[in-house]
Amino acid sequence: MVNPQVRLDSTSLGAAEKLRGPLEDQLTSALNVAVDKVDDQYDGEDAGQVADDILEHTKAGLHSDIAAAVVPDEDQLRSVAETIVRDNT
């Protein structure tokens, strides 16, 4: 089971720093729900498709304004996707 966690770069938040913890929690929750869903629905897709599905499901679980601003670390997202593929083959 993969349980990724989101960490925000504090330099990008500026005055919104006080929202960092709750926002990280919301993003992490949406990401983990997406990972569980994609893992449960895995049917032989490659890691690139799995990563795309994780991102799509993560954004679907967020407010549209937050989802529009989500820019994940591609290497970390790919790593999570590769873990799903590896664990399901």
Q: Can you walk through the features of this model?
A:
This protein is mainly alpha-helical. Helices cover 63% and strands 0% of the residues. The protein is built from 4 helices and no strands. α2 (47-60) packs across α4. The longest helix is centred in the middle third of the chain and has 22 residues, at 20-41. It is elongated.
Secondary-structure blueprint of this entry?
Layout: H1 20-41, H2 47-60, H3 64-69, H4 74-87
Tell me briefly what this model is.
With 89 residues, the protein is mostly helical. It is 63% helix and 0% strand. Helix 1 crosses helix 2 and helix 2 (47-60) packs across helix 4 (74-87).
Helix content: 55-70%
Low-confidence stretches: none
Class inferred from helices and paired strands: mainly alpha
CA-CA gap between termini = 14 Å
Give the beta-strand count.
0
* Average of the residue pLDDT scores: 91
Keywords for this entry:
89 residues, mainly alpha, 4 helices, elongated
